[in-house]
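All the exercises in this workshop are built on plain-text protein records. A record pairs a protein's sequence with a compact description of its fold. Read left to right, the backbone structure tokens trace the chain's path through space. Once this layout is familiar, the rest of the handout is easier to follow. Here is such a record, shown just as it appears in the course material:
>
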Amino acid sequence: MTRKSIIKPMLLSAVLVTSAVSLSGCGYNNLQSQDEQVTASWSEVVNQYQRRSDLVPNLVTVVKQYADQEQTVFTQVAEARSRAGGITLTPEVLNDPQAMERYAEAQGQMDGALSRLMAVSERYPELKSDALFQDLQAQLEGTENRIAVARNRYIQEVQGYNTTVRQFPTNITAKVFGMQAKPNFTVANEAAISTAPNIDFDGDKAATEQ
């Protein structure tokens, strides 16, 4: 083995080690780790919204058994579910603010439609006391809790990632590797996302009767 053949691999190893240390020092590894955490937390948000969407047909079926004349509400629920299901926001397009806004808006419309569907039970005591309806109601409440937790976790992960992307010196690394700040959920009252929606039948009843 020649001296040149020995030195070349050694130089290559030295370059690789130096590069690794340099990338670590400039925050590259931290950016990558935070980006993965954002992706993972987004997947959980999507999973919980899908869980809620899967409950909707069963809820509608049970309600129809007692309140088939509430066709306007059923139509609103079906349309809202269709809009929400028609928007797929994959991790690859999470950097698109317009896509995030459309997704959040569609899920917000689903929130409203579900509230109106659940409020129907106030006018039908037999529906409200139906065992299957009560079970589905409990599942919905649990899912709303999980949605709130997942959304809050995602917002925190994005905030952490965006801070790293913007602050010096990691902002230089982010710019070099094309890593940009990500859009986040925007709500009028950000505190609301950390508390699951409260399905208040008495309040819904009053709103429905107006």
